[in-house]
Design a protein that fits this description.
With about 475 residues, this protein is of the alpha/beta class. It has 16 helices and 14 strands. A five-stranded mixed sheet has the order 2-8-7-6-5, sandwiched between helices. Strands 9-12-11 form a three-stranded antiparallel sheet. A two-stranded parallel sheet has the order 1-10. Helix 7 links the parallel strand 5 and strand 6. Helix 8 packs across helix 9.
C-alpha cells in the first residue's frame, strides 16, 4: 500500500503520517446539487458529461487539462506579464525553461497542445505517409489524418488488457514497427509518434530502455521520433520507481535523459506544467523549426507568443520547474493511488497498474450486459454524475470514432471511463466521496440499460455527441 493510504492509519500502522507538500491559501466554494437537479441537468446535456455546465458539477474529474491549481509563485509571475506583441520577455523565460528541462534548442509556443499537434502534422507529414505510435490519442490522430497521414498502432499488446500488470504498458512493440517499415519502406513513415504515459491505455508509462531502443531503430532507418511530452514528468516518476538504475535519480534528470532520445516534442502545458492554458512545440532540426515558425504565424500568432498572453507564458515557465519537483510528483501520483486502493478494496474493476493522472474504470466489466454500441463507458459516466454529481469522461467506442473507409464504429478493446484528478485541487476527503460513489454505482450495475447516440458531430464526436437512455 502507498504512503498516502497510511495517512488514515496513523499510529496503528507504526508509520508516520504523510501530507501534501503545500497548504491551501484560497478556496472556491462548491455546490452539492440534488438528485432531481442532476437528472434534469444530464438530460439537458444529452447524457454527455462534456455538455454539462460546471455550476451543476460537484467534483469535476472530467480532465486534468487546464484545471490544476497554480502556485503563489505562478500567480505572482502572471503579474509580471509583458504583453508586448513581439519579443515578450516572458517568451524568453519560457524558451529557457524548455531548453533547460527538456533539452531542445528550438521552441515554438502554441495556445495549447493541439495547436502544436497541428503544426507538426502540417510540417512533417506528406499525404499518404504512415504515422506509427503507441496507441492513438484523439486530437493527435485527427491532426495526422487531416494532414493526409494514416495512424498505425504499434503499442505492446499488454496495453490492450486492463488486467495485465506489466510495469511499462506504454512501450512501443519494436517488432510491429519493424514490420511496418519493411512493408512500406522508411520513406513512407513520416515519423514515429511516441506518447509518454499513454492516455488511452490508462496512463501507462514508457520505459527508458524502450525509448532508447526505439531511438536507435529510428536513427538506423532515418525516421524522426517525436514525443508527446504532455505528462512526461509523470512518466519519469514511474521510471524512477520501476526501472533498474533510476531509483536515486531526480525526476528532472530522468525527463532530460528521456528527451535526449527524441528529435523533438510537443506539450499540452495544461497538464504537467500546471497552467490553465498553453502549449509548445520544440525540435532540434533548424530547417524544420523555420517551417514551424512560419506556420505558427498563420495559425496561432507571432512566433514569440503563439496565441498566448505574456502572463500565461510566465506561469508556464514557472510551472515547468514546479512539475519537476520530486515531492510534488509523489503527492500527485500518491493521491491517484489513494483513490485506486479504496476502489480495489471493494473489487471495482479498473485498468492496472494504475497510471499517473487518472483512474480508468473498466466499463465492460461494470456492464457485461451491454453491447459496445450501447456505449457502456458513456453510460458509466452518466451514472456517476447522477449518483453524486461527479463528472468523469468516456474513453471507449465514442472516443474511438468511426472507420473512415466503412463508416462503422471503431471498436477498441478498452472501454473505459476516466476519473481524472486535477493537480493540487482536491483533498483526500473528496477522494473518499468519489470512491463511495463509484462503489454505489458498481453495486447497482445490473440495472444499467445503456445509451443510444442521437446526435453525432463530424469530428471528435465525444466532445459534442448527444445520447438518450435505451428504453
Amino acid at each position: 500500500m502507498s504512503d498516502t493510504v497510511h495517512r488514515t492509519m496513523g499510529q496503528q500502522s507504526g508509520r508516520r503520517s504523510w501530507a501534501e507538500p503545500w497548504k491551501i491559501k484560497m478556496v472556491e466554494p462548491l455546490r452539492m446539487t440534488s438528485h432531481d437537479e442532476r437528472v434534469a441537468a444530464l438530460a439537458e446535456a444529452g447524457y454527455n458529461t462534456f455538455l454539462l455546465r460546471s455550476d451543476d458539477v460537484y467534483i469535476d474529474l472530467l480532465t486534468d487539462s487546464g484545471t490544476n491549481a497554480m502556485s503563489d509563485r505562478q500567480w505572482a509571475g502572471m503579474m509580471l506579464g509583458d504583453e508586448a506583441y513581439a519579443g515578450s520577455r516572458n517568451y524568453y523565460h519560457l524558451e529557457t525553461a524548455i531548453q533547460n528541462y527538456y533539452g531542445y534548442e528550438f521552441v515554438v509556443p502554441t495556445h495549447q497542445g493541439r495547436g502544436a499537434e497541428h503544426l507538426l502534422s502540417q510540417a512533417a507529414i506528406r499525404k499518404g505517409q504512415f504515422v506509427p505510435g503507441n496507441m492513438y490519442f484523439t486530437t493527435t490522430r485527427l491532426h495526422q489524418e487531416l494532414a493526409g497521414g494514416t495512424f498505425v498502432d504499434v503499442i505492446v499488446d499488454a496495453a490492450h488488457d486492463p488486467a495485465d500488470l506489466s510495469p511499462f504498458k506504454g512501450d512501443v512493440d519494436l517488432e510491429k514497427l519493424e514490420r511496418l517499415i519493411a512493408a512500406h519502406g522508411p520513406g513512407e513513415i513520416a515519423y514515429v509518434s511516441l506518447a509518454a504515459t499513454v492516455n488511452m491505455a490508462g496512463g501507462q508509462p514508457v520505459s527508458m530502455a524502450n525509448v532508447t531502443a526505439l531511438h536507435e531503430l529510428c536513427r538506423r532507418h532515418g525516421i524522426p521520433l517525436y514525443l508527446d511530452a504532455t505528462r512526461l514528468a509523470e512518466n519519469a516518476f514511474f521510471i524512477q520507481e520501476r526501472e533498474p538504475g533510476y531509483s536515486g535519480k531526480p525526476i528532472a534528470a530522468i525527463v532530460r535523459e528521456f528527451c535526449s532520445h527524441t528529435d523533438g516534442a510537443w506539450m499540452s502545458a495544461k497538464k504537467d506544467a500546471l497552467v490553465n492554458i498553453g502549449g509548445w512545440l520544440a525540435v532540434r532540426d533548424g530547417t524544420l523549426f523555420e517551417e514551424l515558425r512560419n506556420l505558427v504565424v498563420v495559425y496561432e500568432g507571432l512566433h514569440t507568443y503563439g496565441g498566448l498572453a505574456g502572463r500565461d507564458m510566465e506561469a508556464m515557465a514557472i510551472g515547468i520547474a514546479e512539475s519537476m519537483q520530486d515531492d510534488h510528483m509523489r503527492s500527485r501520483i500518491g493521491q491517484v493511488r489513494y483513490l485506486a486502493e479504496l476502489l480495489e478494496d471493494w473489487g471495482v474493476p479498473m485498468v492496472k497498474p494504475v497510471g499517473g493522472h487518472a483512474i480508468f474504470l473498466d466499463a465492460r466489466a461494470f456492464y457485461p450486459q451491454l453491447r459496445q454500441d450501447q456505449f457502456p463507458a458513456q453510460t458509466l459516466a452518466a451514472e456517476l454524475y447522477l449518483d453524486t454529481g461527479i463528472r468523469s469522461m468516456e474513453r471507449g467506442v465514442v472516443s474511438a470514432g468511426r472507420d473512415p473507409t466503412t463508416g462503422g464504429h471503431n471498436y477498441p478493446k478498452l472501454e473505459l471511463t476516466r476519473l481524472t484528478l486535477p493537480r493540487r485541487v482536491y483533498t483526500q476527503a473528496h477522494m473518499d466521496v468519489v470512491a463511495e460513489s463509484v462503489k454505489a454505482v458498481y453495486d447497482a450495475r445490473a440495472s444499467a440499460r445503456g445509451l443510444a447516440m442521437v446526435y453525432e458531430p463530424r469530428y471528435l464526436r465525444f466532445f459534442q455527441a448527444r445520447f438518450e437512455p435505451i428504453s
